[in-house]
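B., you asked whether I could sanity-check this one before it goes into the benchmark set. Here's the sequence:
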Amino acid sequence: MNNNTIIRSAFVAFCLIGMLVLPAVAAPAGQSATMKGNMIDQDLKDDLWANHQQYRLQRFDTNIEQANSVLTILGKYNINTTACQATLTTISGKRSELEAALTARDQEKLKTVNSGLMTLWQQFRKDVKDAFRGHYGKGAAGNPAALTSSGLGMLTV
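And here's what the prediction gave me:
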């Protein structure tokens, strides 16, 4: 496995992580909604919210698992992932906060948690990028495996 393959795999992993963060605005509203003048059945709303909660937490767990897998691969190539692991530990610690916001159906808290998670995932991606730079040389301008400021997978030539 060459460096380009590793970088591309990491880029795909981070793209998936970034795409899976569900915006709070897509979550069901806590207020009663009307459809052609009729109230939506409360049981339907409850079932949809339970579905949303289950799969949102499942996506969170999958993202953590995938990020851990990426760190394992980087470690295999002796790339220092200490900062990445610290950020991932912080992200993992936010699961209970996310679950509490989902359980309470607290839209504002959910927006806050999602915003915080987005910031932490961005930090994680930056930490991984910095780990690559640290391993291949600061800036690594002449190195084909160097990463640009636009993110992983973007190779300088």
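One thing to flag: The chain is about 65% helix and 5% strand. Otherwise nothing jumped out at me.
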